[in-house]
Specification:
Blueprint lengths: L7 H7 L4 E3 L11 H10 L5 E3 L5 E3 L10 E3 L3 E2 L2 E2 L7 H5 L2 E5 L3 E7 L3 H4 L3 H8 L3 H11 L4 E2 L5 E8 L10
Parallel strand pairs: 7-9
Antiparallel strand pairs: 1-4, 2-3, 5-6, 7-8, 8-10
The protein binds iron/sulfur cluster.
């Protein structure tokens, strides 16, 4: 959640982005070694699966309810138990970073109904002046640049990337 664009209250009332459909592995955040180590220390019961493109993801299969919905294992009634240590993709959601090899794109994931109702020009303005570039760089460093095109998304920023090798493979 980007506090400049979404208030903590708006996210707390929704939390839909922390609940996944069974089999929706592509939507799970990329977990780095650092975040996995924090989880292992703080939440020893949380299980992980390896991602094909490197890194890890939460193994949510055993959390599905009768409707096939799987809340993230570190989601609490007060929000994400990881706080500022949450995965990078969670910290920028509903923005996502994708690449077609030549360019990196920051897109708005339309799964966020709160942000979808806002003026996209405000978000584009937020990404100018180096912010978009920094988000792309950190996405590359944490291995969470997704293949482009992304479904259900609106392009907000386009920039060069030199980090195609770090693309997530799901
Ligand atoms: S790690 Fe935190 S922010 Fe990310 S999906 Fe899980 S509960 Fe939500």
């Amino acid at each position: 959640m980007i506090k400049e664009l979404l208030s903590p209250g708006e996210c707390a009332r929704c939390r839909e982005c922390c609940v996944f459909e069974a089999g929706e592995a592509f939507a799970l955040p990329v977990i780095t070694d650092r975040v996995r180590d924090i989880c292992r220390r703080e939440f020893p019961l949380v299980r992980f699966a390896e991602r094909p493109g490197g890194g890890y993801m939460f193994d949510i299969r055993s959390y599905a309810d009768e409707n096939g919905l799987c809340p993230c294992p570190v989601l609490t009634p007060k929000g994400c138990a990881l706080g500022d240590d949450k995965p990078f993709e969670c910290s920028i959601f509903p923005l996502r970073v994708c690449s077609d090899g030549d360019y990196a794109y920051i897109v708005l994931d339309s799964a966020c109904h709160v942000m979808e109702s806002k003026d996209t020009n405000v978000i584009k303005e937020y990404l100018r002046g180096g912010k978009g570039e920094r988000i792309v760089k950190e996405a590359a460093e944490t291995g969470c640049i997704r293949p482009f095109p992304c479904d259900r998304s609106i392009i907000l920023y386009k920039g060069k990337t030199e980090h195609e090798n770090n693309q997530a493979r799901l």
